[in-house]
Design a protein that fits this description.
Chain lengths: 452, 452
């Protein structure tokens, strides 16, 4: 019925039904919409209609809707519902989404929210919250169907029918033995294609790939990406099946990991987007900049310690930004390769040695090319071959050191599990600034008598 | 049987079966493995066994294997197979993977490869290659099952059984009318739960979300992410169903888009990873660095034009790296926010104006904070309030201009569809270097009489 209606028309129709008290027709429209669209409609509707909107929707519809809102709006909606109805809605929510909602709230607030829920549902969520953040245990859902291995296809279909609407619409059924250990997997398609008297254990696929609940979310994402899975089962150390992680959550993981990498490279601070207010954005970016300002003062004091050299050969100043800038740039390039590489493959000693050696060679090749170039330019521009040699040899050295710094520093931080945000692009750039100035002025001072 | 065997043990076992000529047992093992694992085994096996490996595998197994290899290895494998068997394998490959394989090959090579294929299969691939790169048409597969809307559930199951093994294991069946237009979608689960006499058009979901074949892959990824879809149907302008894009391809899109963003920020050049050779990596990174070297010379000539000011007040040099560096850093921060924002939401005039205005305010707040700080430091360090004022007011101005440059330049490039790699971090940093030096020395020259 609403097939060809625009979003605005749908909103108007829903408001009309609410005014006329037509609950049935209202729910009919919601049933035809995707949760994401319902959430958009709810958000774009004048707030005065919200309470009525919730009154007209049944808990399943609200549970779908609430999962697509952002956190402040979720909390506001639950408040509007009151303890009892919000309990019903929370019971119906996917427990991974619920765990995400609770994450970061005060323990009183969590208790308050969980108090309206069924005992067993709230226990499941509390168990999930016990796993460390960014692990499989935090991402998993318990809305999946498991089948004992001795079931026939017929029995399986019967079980599926009674759990309809409960499980996430994922293609696989997981097969467990009498100890609840994961022993196999079978797809809906296999079920359709099989004869109804066949036993599940005869049609199941038994080399199941699973993850342990403490596995890091990046590793889970790698497995799902690698095998093109739609979901991956989560087990305890004893191989007991406790949940599944679905591919839609993994897309979110991949996006947030990429955003983290970019924050590392730019030190732009956590979660600044187009909607962040100016004050908040400035507040999040400032700490880094102030730190970098103080590191920048180190450059200043290095230069000041070479004040005599400088005042004698002012021309040295002209090449300062070039040398510092180039060193910073080559360091950022190396950093980007390392940061991206660290998430997409496993790192062992061999890989690191090969990489550092490779970057050393890259630094040499680029350094010699640029060094010769700048020697020629400096010589022609200032007519002084010694100045050319000072600038050229400095650039060769600083580029080699710059690329190594951009490679080794993030690896060391990664090895020592330091918050990777520390290995940010600006930090490497600023450190490379300091190194390059030290090298440049040291070489210049060595040649000072010849420069005059 | 191989359930508890390590990868090495499996390799040895396979080699043994090959030596003993036990084709059946060999294939039995392959059948228990995921394509990704078969590919790893093939790669890690000494090359002398490869020909025999392919001889022992049947075309379906090779088709699964080949999709998980990288391009050079794929081409080598097809060469080993010979025209006839490689044609069989190509027929069995998913056409999106095949299109990816052909992408970038010479037209003679493409013709040669396609020559061994069935007419209809090679036509499908050639049609796909006609869509522009990075669109839905290039990503889609035709291995899906469509159902006429007048079918009953029973007829549907029969059709499914006869197409078993052909379709990708995705949860949905797409429903078309007599003009082959997409009219609905139904899941395997719906089929299992429905009565076998029901008509598909009565149980299908008719508000289908689809994409047009020319839709950009980023937009497809956004839709799939937003709606948590496992697949999305692809239609022509006339709504005729031509393929589906599956979530596993979308994960690859999300990863490659993120990598592109990082290349933008670091100008590290396309596709350098841990395995790239030093020479190739240097060759890819050099063009940018040489360009930046010449831009850096502009900084040099700016400084040289202020030679008189500098030689009179050498202390001005001390703050040069700090001012240039801070301006570069704030620009990179803004750039990161913009680059990430441009891919995750639609951009209109209003969004841009709000964003630029926000960044102006951020620049003001950060500029004033850092400016006051550096005024105090310069004053205390050098005991000269005028130097403090010069440095402080310069920093305020350069930080504001730096953040605006980091915001506006990428937006302009994006608007004019310039290759976004141009808006790279180092470029913004280098431009900000030049701007900051101009401002700093202009202000210093204005105050020159008071500084002496």
């Amino acid at each position: 019925m609403i097939k060809n209606m625009s979003e605005n028309q749908i909103v108007l129709q829903l408001i009309k039904y609410m005014k006329d008290g037509k609950k049935q027709s209202f729910q009919g429209i919601l049933d035809e919409l995707h949760p994401y669209d319902i959430a958009r409609i709810y958000e774009n509707m004048p707030e005065k209609h919200h309470t009525r909107f919730l009154l007209f929707s049944h808990p399943e519809q609200i549970a779908d809707l609430v999962q697509e809102l952002d956190k402040p709006m979720q909390l506001e909606l639950l408040l509007k519902l009151g303890i009892e109805k919000s309990g019903q809605v929370l019971d119906l929510m996917d427990n991974d989404d619920l765990a995400q909602l609770l994450d970061g709230l005060s323990s009183e607030r969590i208790e308050e929210l969980l108090s309206g829920m069924k005992q067993e549902e709230s226990e499941i969520v509390q168990n999930m919250m016990n796993y460390p953040p960014e692990t499989a245990g935090r991402l998993m859902t318990n809305r999946f169907v498991w089948i004992p291995q001795h079931y026939t296809v017929r029995e399986t279909v019967d079980k599926l029918k009674s759990f309809a609407g409960f499980s996430e619409t994922i293609n696989y059924l997981y097969v467990i033995d009498h100890d609840k250990k994961l022993v196999g997997v079978v797809s809906y398609r296999d079920i359709i294609l099989a004869d109804e008297h066949e036993k599940i254990q005869d049609i199941m696929y038994s080399r199941v790939i699973s993850v342990e609940a403490h596995t890091d979310q990046e590793e889970v994402a790698q497995l799902i990406e690698r095998y093109d899975f739609l979901a991956i089962p989560v087990v305890t150390e004893e191989q007991v099946l406790v949940g599944i992680v679905t591919v839609d959550d993994i897309i979110d993981v991949v996006i947030s990991e990429a955003t983290e990498d970019i924050e590392k490279l730019s030190a732009s601070g956590k979660s600044i987007d187009f909607d962040t207010s100016a004050f908040v954005a400035a507040y999040r970016r400032l700490p880094w900049l102030i730190l970098l300002l103080f590191i920048g003062l180190v450059s200043g004091s290095i230069i000041s310690s070479f004040e005599d050299t400088l005042s004698m050969v002012v021309a040295l100043t002209f090449f300062m930004p070039l040398i510092a800038g180039m060193t910073g740039n080559i360091g950022t390039q190396s950093l980007a390769v390392v940061v991206r590489g660290l998430i997409t493959r496993e790192i062992d000693r061999g890989v690191i040695i090969r990489l550092v050696f490779r970057e050393l060679k890259v630094g040499l090749m680029i350094g010699i090319t640029c060094g010769i170039l700048i020697f020629l330019i400096a010589y022609i521009w200032r007519g002084d071959p010694i100045l050319g040699i000072v600038v050229g040899s400095s650039l060769i050295m600083t580029l080699i050191i710059g690329t190594l710094a951009g490679t080794i520093i993030p690896i060391i931080l990664y090895r020592f599990n330091v918050d990777p945000a520390v290995a940010s692009g600006p930090l490497i750039t600023t450190l490379n600034d300091i190194l390059s100035l030290l090298i440049y002025f040291s070489i210049a001072t060595m040649f000072l008598s010849k420069l005059l």
